[in-house]
Write a structure and sequence with these properties.
globular; 69% helix
Length: 366
């Protein structure tokens, strides 16, 4: 059997028609394409889905067994969207037994996923769908107006310009133009960090997951809320240490870290335990990744705490003391223990990898 795959990498189907992927089967794909066409008649993914159905019909007329599916990604095109497409493709392959696939695409963007699909199943070909349009409609003005209606493009172009105008306007009106420029640099720096590492998408996914956990009564929501509270208390505790430390700024910063790290590590452990309990209640077994994650978290915590304490000792601000033992040896012991736990986490990962014949699942996906 041949599988005809249509990829909606930016999840127009979910955003505009409210349909979550994967969509499997001729009737389901036609229904999804129809809903998308009603929601946005100009969306090219509609034509790609109908083209996929047409290709299935042609294959069946030629005497071949065929099935069609639509895979959806994420509005934030990149690593997260490609990961979602890969997970959905694995789900489709587990439900439909096929020998090869044919990719239907509405542009080069979707074809970036070809290596991901080809790594799981033989791809016999790629069919790109072209949309015929009137030449009069393709004027520069029409293209610009239509492009600006795309929320993704607006977020990338209009939003930074709007922030620039607002900050400069407020700072100029208040007579603080220099501070406005400084604030603008910070805002754009944070914006670029979020955009580079898909942090905004991760936050959105976390909120959606939390909403689902609340509706389903999942234990992970309570653990996650408690973990966030501990992390927040870590910042408060660190700030108290910062303002009460009678030293230079660097020494105050070390005091902030020294007071906050223990709470941050505890919060991370609570978060991971909650995720492991959710997996245990759902599948009656703990994920192997929890052992790697908890060992790594404790190791990173000890290593960070030891390094900060070593810097405090070198700055003459004290350090770790325990029942009268010397500061420097205790600090070295904690650093070595952290390194040992990190090595142990790596060995555990390799051990589990050899046991299951593949990489240990990422804790964030559990």
């Amino acid at each position: 059997m041949r599988l005809v795959v249509c990829v909606d990498r930016d999840d127009d189907l979910g955003r505009k028609a409210g349909i979550q992927g994967p969509v499997i089967g001729r009737a389901s794909v036609i229904e999804a394409a129809t809903k998308l066409a009603v929601a946005d008649p100009e969306d090219a993914d509609t034509n790609a889905m109908f083209a996929a159905v047409q290709l299935v019909d042609e294959l069946e007329k030629a005497g071949q067994e065929a099935e069609v599916c639509v895979l959806t990604g994420s509005p934030k095109v990149g690593r997260l969207s490609d990961q979602k497409v890969a997970e959905q493709f694995d789900l489709v392959l587990s439900e439909v037994k096929v020998d090869s696939a044919h990719l239907v695409s509405d542009g080069a963007e979707d074809e970036f996923l070809f290596p991901i699909l080809a790594s799981r199943l033989r791809i016999d070909g790629v069919h790109r769908v072209y949309i015929r349009q009137s030449a009069n409609l393709e004027s520069t003005y029409f293209l610009i107006v239509r492009a600006l209606k795309d929320p993704k493009l607006r977020a990338k172009t209009i939003l930074p310009l709007a922030i620039l105008l607002i900050v400069i306007g407020i700072s100029y009106g208040a007579g603080l133009l220099v501070w406005g420029v400084v604030a603008l640099l910070i805002i754009f720096g944070v914006y670029l960090v979020f955009w580079t590492f898909d942090i905004d998408e991760a936050i959105i996914d976390s909120l959606r997951s939390a909403s689902t956990d609340v509706r389903q009564g999942s234990v992970s929501f309570g653990f996650g809320l408690f973990a966030i509270g501990l992390v927040g208390y870590g910042f408060v505790s660190g700030y108290d240490a910062y303002i009460t430390t009678p030293s230079a700024v660097f020494g105050q910063f070390l005091s902030f870290l020294n007071a906050a790290i223990i709470w941050w590590v505890t919060g991370a452990l609570i978060w991971e335990v909650g995720r492991a309990l959710r997996r245990y209640l759902a599948r009656h077994q703990f994920p192997r990744s929890v052992y790697v994650a908890t060992t790594s978290i404790v190791g990173i915590g000890l290593l960070s705490y030891g390094v900060v304490s070593m810097l405090e000792y070198l700055q003459g601000l004290g350090g770790i003391t325990f029942r009268g033992l010397p500061v420097l040896p205790m600090t070295i012991v904690i650093i070595v223990a952290g390194l040992a736990l990190e090595i142990l986490a790596g060995l555990l990962q390799q051990r589990f990898k050899s046991m299951i014949g593949g990489p240990v699942p990422d804790p964030s996906s559990s």
